[in-house]
Design brief:
The protein is an alpha+beta fold. Helix content is about 30%, strand content about 25%. Strands 2-1-4-5-3 form a 5-stranded antiparallel β-sheet. The radius of gyration is 15 Å and the shape is globular.
């Protein structure tokens, strides 16, 4: 499963993900693309500057990041995915709406 986080500018990614979804769901629903690779899982992921004095006035902005681990990328190796963190160009609000819809759809099926 792909792990999904909201990350704030200048703050390292840590802690548990807010959701986990299949790779194809992240591609179809969130717009995940291979070209938006940020870092490998071994690297510390920080978007923007870490010093408060160097951050932009918009530093409270949140970014959606998806992590693909080896297990997920192996299953989709023919599609060119690599284990890494990827930036998703969707707003935090858009992500929350997509996750809420997915949960509602799951509940309707069961």
């Amino acid at each position: 499963m792909a792990k999904i986080w909201l990350i704030q500018e200048g703050i390292p990614l840590k802690g548990p993900p807010m959701a986990e979804r299949p790779l194809h769901w992240c591609v179809d629903e969130l717009g995940l693309r291979r070209g938006y690779r940020l870092a490998t899982p071994r690297e510390t992921l920080i978007i923007g500057r870490t010093s408060a004095s160097d951050r932009s006035p918009f530093s409270n902005r949140q970014y959606v990041v998806v992590e693909l681990e080896e297990e997920e990328t192996t299953a989709h190796s023919s599609e060119g995915w690599r284990s890494a963190y990827y930036l998703v160009l969707i707003s935090a609000e858009g992500l929350m709406n997509k996750l809420a819809t997915a949960i509602q759809n799951q509940a309707a099926i069961h």
